[in-house]
Amino acid sequence: MTRNTAPGPEPCPRPGLTQDKAGAGYWRDVWLREAPEPVDLDDATLRNHINLRLGRFFTRHLPPARPGQILLEAGCGASAWLPVFARRFGYQVMGVDYSEQGCGLAQAVLRKARVPGEILRADLFASPAKLRGRADVVFSQGLVEHFTPTSGVLERLAWLTRPGGLVLTLVPNMRGLTGLLQRLMDKRIYDLHVPLTPAALARAHRACGLMPEAWGHLGTLNLGVINCSRWARTPLAHRALTLALGAPSLAVWQLERLFKAEWPSNLASPLVYCVARKPCEDGL
To answer: What is the CATH number of domain 23-174+192-221+271-277?
Structure first.
C-alpha cells in the first residue's frame, strides 16, 4: 500500500545554502503526464536495452536485501524502478519527492506492479525527523545534478542513510555528447544541470563524509535522454529529431549485443555514477 503525505508548501530557495536549479515549477510541468509502466527486466527487446543495462549495474552494486531492509529513492517522481528493487532485490521500498504530481505518478507505478511501498511528499531539506538514518540504500537518478553545490544535496542523502549503508547516485553525462546536444537543442534545459565528471561526483560524496567505492561512466550511448520538448509544438520537427537521436543509439545497442560488450567513455556515455558507503560511525 502506498501513502502520500498531505500537500504542504512548495520548496523555496534557501539563500546562502544549497540551491535548486530546476525548481518545483519545472517538475510540475514535467510530471503532467501518465504514469510510466514499471521497468520489466524480463523484456529482452532492444528498446529495453538501457533498462537491462541498469539492471546489471544494480545487480553488481546492490547486495541482496535482508529481511526488513529499506531502499529509499530520493527524487522518486514517476519512478519506474521501485517495483524492481522490491521484487528482484527484496527491499522494502520508499520514495521521497517534493512534487505532488511526481509522488502521484510513483504511487501509480507501484499500484500497477502490485508492489507495496511508501511514497512521501517532502522537501529533502526539510524531511521528517523519522527519515534520519532510515534507509539501508539511498538511490537517486537525475536528482543531484540539479543542485549546487552538489555536496549540499548529497549531505541530505547521507542524512537519510543508516551508518554502513549505501548511496547510489546516477546523473546524466552533461560533460559529453549528451550535454553538447542538449545545449544545442534547448540551452534552457541544459542550464538546469551541473555538469559533473565521475571524479567530481566522487569528490562531492567524499566531501560530505561518504566513502566512494566505485565511480565512472555507464553505458555506451543513449541520445534518447536528450530533452526535445521545446519542439513539441512543431510535431514534424519533433518527430524528426526523435528519430535522428534514436537511430544511432539503437545501432550502438545492436553492436553491444553482437559483441557482448560496451564501451563507456567521457564522450558518449549517457550516465555518470558513484557508489558510496556511509561510515559506520554516524557523525552526520
So the answer is: 3.40.50.150
The 10s digit of each residue's pLDDT in 103-148 is 999 999 999 999 999 999 999 999 999 999 999 999 999 999 999 9
Contact predicate 190/21, CB 8 Å: no
In what helix (H) or strand (E) does residue 218 lie, and over which residues does it extend? strand 211-218
What are the tens digits of pLDDT across the range 84-108? 999 999 999 999 999 999 999 999 9
φ, ψ for residue 155 (rounded to 5)? -60, -35
Q: Residue 172, SS3? A: strand
165: left (phi over 0), alpha (psi -120 to 50) or beta: beta
**DSSP string of 147-185?**
EESHHHHHHHHHHHEEEEEEEEEEEE-TTSHHHHHHHHH
Where are the domains positioned within the chain? 23-174+192-221+271-277
Cα dihedral across residues 207, 96, 175, 25: positive or negative? negative
* Helix H or strand E segment including 217: strand 211-218
User: What is the C-alpha separation between 278 and 284, in angstroms, rounded?
Assistant: 10
Distance CA 65, CA 266 (A): 32
Please tell me the distance from the alpha carbon of residue 203 to that of residue 149, in angstroms, as a whole number: 12
The number of beta carbons lying within 10 Å of the beta carbon of residue 248 is: 15
